[in-house]
Structure formats: C-alpha cells, structure tokens
Amino acid sequence: MNDISKLPIEVVLICDPISDESEEIDHLSSDGDRPDPSSLELIFDGLLKIAEHVTHYRTIEDFINNINCHRKSVVFPYWFGEISRNRHSLVPAICESYGISYIGADAYTKAVCNDKHLAKTICEECRIPTPSGFILTEKKDLQLLSSWTYPAVIKPICQGSSLGISEKSLAQNEVEAREVAISLAKSFGWPVLVEEMLIGREISICIMGNHIDEPYIKALSWTINGQPDFLNERLFTYALKYLDNCDFLPVDESQILTESLVLSCKKLFQLLDKAEIIRIDGRITKNGFYAFELSPDLDLRPDGELAMSFGQNEYPCLLRKLITNALERAGRKLPADNKN
Description:
Blueprint: E1 7-15, H1 37-48, E2 51-57, H2 60-65, E3 74-78, H3 90-98, E4 101-102, H4 107-114, H5 116-125, E5 133-136, E6 152-156, E7 170-171, H6 174-188, E8 192-196, E9 201-208, E10 216-224, H7 238-241, E11 246-250, H8 253-256, H9 259-272, E12 277-285, E13 288-295, H10 305-310, H11 315-329
Parallel strand pairs: 1-2, 1-3, 3-4
Antiparallel strand pairs: 5-8, 6-7, 6-8, 9-10, 9-12, 10-11, 12-13
C-alpha cells in the first residue's frame, strides 16, 4: 500500500462532528460517539490526498437533497447521529437504494454488529467463544439478577464506542446491577445485556479485505497510564478510551492469532459479507480468546485502530485501499484501470 496517486473520483464524506460548543460529554450522552472536529479535518485531509474531489455533508438530509449529484461517487460513511439502534445502518441503506458505492459494512452487518447479543451469536457460529450472559428486556426481568454470579458486566445492548460503560458497569452484587441496568434503560432503552466478567488482556482483532482476496488480520491491545495490564481486571470504560494516556500496544500475534482463531475470523468476515473493515473486541483469558463485541465502525483517524493495525505511516494509502476495496466489491472498475 505505497501508491498514493490520486484516484479520478469524488468521495462523499458524511460526518457529523460534535460542535466546539458542545456541553461536557460522558458515557450516557446521546452524542457521545460522534467524532470531534479535529477527526473530521484529519479524515477529510487524508481523503484529499487520494481522491480528486471530496465533498462533506454533516447531515443525511443534506446528502439526500444532493444525492443525484453523486451517483458515480464513493460514499464514506462516518455518521453517528443521535441515540438510535438503526443509526449506523441509515447511510449504507440509502446508498444501496440509490445504487451508490460506499465504503464499509452494509445495513445488515451494521445492524447485527450493533446488537451485542446478535454479534455474540454470530461469533459462536464461527467458533469464537463469548462470555456467558443474558438480556433484560423489561423492568420485571430485573429479578433474574438475583440468581447471577458476581461480579457482572451490565451494558446497553445496542451502543458502541463504550457508550454506557463506566466503572459502575462492573457490578459487584445484585443491588449495583439493578441500579446500573435501570440507569442504562433510562438513557438508551431496553434491552440491557448482563455478562460474566472476563479476566485477561483486552484485545482487538482488526480485519480488512474486499471479500475477493485473503483478508488482512491484525491484533492489538492498549496500555493505560503506561501500564500494559491496567485493563486485565477492569472494564475499558468510556472515560478511559478518551484519556491522553491511552495508547495502542503491539502484541505477540503468534500467541494470539492461532490457526483456528484465524480460520474463525475469516469465516466470520465472509459470513457478514459486505464489511470491508471489522473489529472483534475481546480478551485473552487462561482459556484463550473470548469475543464480546463486533464493530464495523472503526476509528478512521490516522491514529485510530485501523491505521495502527495496517499502516499508520501510510494513512493516505490505507484510505485509498478502502476505496478500491469498495469499488471492487461493487463490481466497479477502478478509475483508469489503475489497480496499484
């Protein structure tokens, strides 16, 4: 990925950054996963280096009002919207209905991955183990907490970016679990997910590909305040993810990406089909890797997970690869037949 020649196409970036005047945001904020203005600037500048034209829309409404101008463009969805379990699926669904190429997962994959319970079901189907747990669908289900073994992780079922996750999410008893579940239901609605707490190194497995060639598979971890084992017995909370002292940590992939796990990752990637990029979050325990979340909405900044996994020093080339993957996946020829 070392060719940064510009593609003779237009990329439409749909991104809704928070405003500089936004009030303080926390794990229960309705716009807690939206990018900041600096993220928009970094991604926009990166796209300008590999595409002749880049157009930005802040709202889906603006995009739809001008959609006939972009029939031959490639859409780059980075829109998070307000709290809604469907919000990540909207842009891909609109693009498909208009026959417009777009980068990343389709509406189905977005919806499935956004539901942590369904995501775990798919992982199990692909022989990737997941933590035991159950869902609370309404207030009367809180009685189920009395028979659970603690500590337990309590989290919203349809949120990403650690929304809804604080230190209190690791409940030590039934009383704490009820309190957190009710709070989450009030902010995000039912259902609420209850899981066992996994002890071990937090790991993300990133997969990128075009579903034609073999996908790239990489693994990474984090260090908090310079401590590689900081998260081993803690949750990766919303507050921790946005610390200045939260850094990516290289891992020994030979010890993590076993032959069987790689085969399972490939199966999962193929099963989800339209997903040029996806991340499997989990932990390495004494019994191996366990997955608890799937995300097709990676941090696409030059210092985000994708760039760290597949080439931070070649960020424009990485964006170019995502665009060419999307075009190839849609059966479109690369502009000027340039396939380098």
